[in-house]
Design brief:
54 residues, mainly alpha, elongated
Length: 54
Amino acid sequence: MALFLFLVLVAIILGLIGVIIEGLMFLLVIGIIVLVVDIVFVAVRRSRRSRPLR
């Protein structure tokens, strides 16, 4: 969970830097990609845990 929160924080910081500083819009794109990959990673981990044991 700490890795998830860290990556969300990194994505937010990259996005803010990309929006604030002109010409660094690619940082916003990188931040969005990091956020999406992080959410997919957590969703996959949770779906593996939610399967009932037989």
